[in-house]
Amino acid sequence: MAEWTYVDTEAAEAFCHLQYFAIKKHQADGDVDFVITVREYVNPPDPAMKFFAQADKQTNQRTAPFTPVGWGQSMSSALHECVKSIRRFPYEPK
User: Which of 32, 14, 13 is nearest to 23 (CA)?
Assistant: First the structure.
């Protein structure tokens, strides 16, 4: 375990480590950059969901706005789910 996980915190405080990633979504009307923030929780809300990834932008804004996210037991699984969510709907700026 990493040293930061030994900091004395309570589960309700949702103490986590943040990492950032970026992906470029290619669309007919131009490319859109998304920044994905991944949280690695010391005490996750569910033991099967230690990592949570969330995009900085919504997709599908004109129909039903959707924020791409992903949960997983590993960073790669959370990122994979988030990237799949980014690809699911078009980015439609208002």
Answer: 32
- Residue 10 in tokens: 């309570």
Instruction: Specify if 93 maps to a domain.
Output: no
In this structure, the number of other CB atoms found within 10 A of the CB of residue 32 comes to: 17
| Proportion of the chain above pLDDT 90, given as a percent | 77
Tokens at residue 19, please?
């990492």
Number of domains the chain is built from: 1
Does a structural domain hold residue 81?
yes
pTM exceeds 0.70 for this model: yes
Q: Read off the pLDDT of residues 25-50 as tens digits, 9 standing for 90 and up.
A: 999 999 999 999 999 999 998 888 99
